[in-house]
Amino acid sequence: MPTFDIVSKTDLHEVDNAIENLRREIGQRFDFKGSKCSIERQESVLTILADDNPKLGQMQELLRGHVTRRKIDAAALDFGTPERAGGDMIRQTVTIKQGIDRDLSKRIVKGLKDSKLKVQASIQGDELRVSGKNRDDLQAAIATVRALDIEQPLQYLNFRD
């Protein structure tokens, strides 16, 4: 029986490369001369420190751009609310989305069942396994999942006949 997996994974090594490119650009740009702007990564959480709101906005746009250049979907970044930090700085945490949470899994399974396709979807931790009788049904299931308005990047792996 043909199957495939639906996962949501972000390559943290590519995120690190994007962060290094961002640091290099901040060091070279004239509008960041003399500022204390920085970005750090701990596990799957980025911390942005900026001098003021306009610089924070510029750093967000630069981060999105550098991540996209490294072939990572910018929708994988979940920007938190900015907060005041010491010394008139602004801190913002950015969470990198990894895995499919329970609510999103249920929404995808419900969307597949509502489409009346002859496929079965099972939740396996933070990923989904979809199985069907033939390859055409699975390709239609991928098209159905892509048509659902999901704000998280998904990958379709392990397509087996």
Radius of gyration, taken over Cα atoms and rounded to an integer in Å = 20 Å
Low-pLDDT regions = none
* The CATH architecture of the largest domain: 2-Layer Sandwich
Domain count, please report it. 2
Superfamily at the CATH H level of the largest domain? YajQ-like, domain 2
State the separation between the terminal residues, measured CA to CA: 7 Å
Q: Can you tell me the CATH class of the largest domain?
A: Alpha Beta
| CATH third-level topology of the largest domain | Alpha-Beta Plaits
Mean pLDDT over the full residue set: 90
Number of strands: 9
Describe this structure in words.
- The chain is an alpha+beta fold and 161 residues long.
- The protein folds into 2 domains: 3-8 and 99-160, Alpha-Beta Plaits, CATH 3.30.70; 12-96, Alpha-Beta Plaits (2-Layer Sandwich), CATH 3.30.70.
- The chain is built from 4 helices and 9 strands.
- Strands 2, 3, 4, 5 and 6 form a 5-stranded antiparallel sheet that branches. It has a 4-stranded antiparallel sheet with strand order 7-8-1-9, with helices on one face.
- The protein is elongated and about 60 Å long.
- The termini are close together.
- The model has no long low-confidence stretch (mean pLDDT 90).
Give the SSE layout.
Elements lengths: L2 E5 L4 H17 L9 E5 L2 E6 L2 H17 L7 E3 L3 E3 L3 E8 L5 H13 L4 E6 L2 E6 L2 H13 L7 E6 L1
Antiparallel strand pairs: 1-8, 1-9, 2-3, 3-6, 4-6, 5-6, 7-8
Which terms would index this structure?
161 residues, alpha+beta, Alpha-Beta Plaits, five-stranded antiparallel beta sheet, 4 helices, 9 strands, 37% helix
